[in-house]
Structures are given as structure tokens and as C-alpha cells.
Design a protein that fits this description.
Na(+)/H(+) antiporter subunit C; about 110 residues; transmembrane; cell membrane; about 70% helix; mainly alpha; Helix Hairpins
Length: about 110
Amino acid sequence: METLITILSGVLVTVATYLILSKNLLRVILGSAILSHAVHLLLMVMGGLKKGTVPLLGEKPNTYTDAIPQALILTAIVISFAVTAVFLVMAYRSYQETDVGHEVLLRGTKDE
């Protein structure tokens, strides 16, 4: 199962790279969101599946589960959501000002 999720993460990275290299602003934003999801999956796989109990005081089980990968993924989800929201607001504002959603046309003319 971990191999399948690793392959899925790799596919998501390739799709995100393709979208980021396009010239449409919405595709670039979508590519960055997909890339962040690929990183979330990769962090989850790297954390691994550990079976055990929660670390409680007074108990002495043999194995504990590690909460660090879940905390990292939760933090990364919040940050990627905020970055995607900022990108969308910036793209919407630039579209309002210029009526253009294409990166090459946003550069202006050759004379400038």
C-alpha cells in the first residue's frame, strides 16, 4: 500500500509540474495546489504505519504511535490552503485590472 501511495505521489508531482509550466494563471495555481497535496501524501508515507498505543503517563506499553507526521501534515495543509487562497486573490485582482488571464499577455508589448 505504501508503494502505491508513493507512485501516486510521483504522478501528482508530474501533473503539478506540467500545470505549473503552462502559461495560464489558473493552471499554475491549480498545479501548486496539486503539488502541495503530493507533498502531503509523501509525508504520510514517510511517517509509515505504526501500530501502538497513545503515550499516557502511568502506562508502560511496548510501542507508541508517533504523532509528528500527522502534525506536520496538518500544518502543511493549513499553509497550502492559505497560499492557494492568496494566489487566487492575486490572480483575480490581476484579471480585474487587465482583463487578461494569460502570463505572456500580462508582460505587455515588446516596445515596453
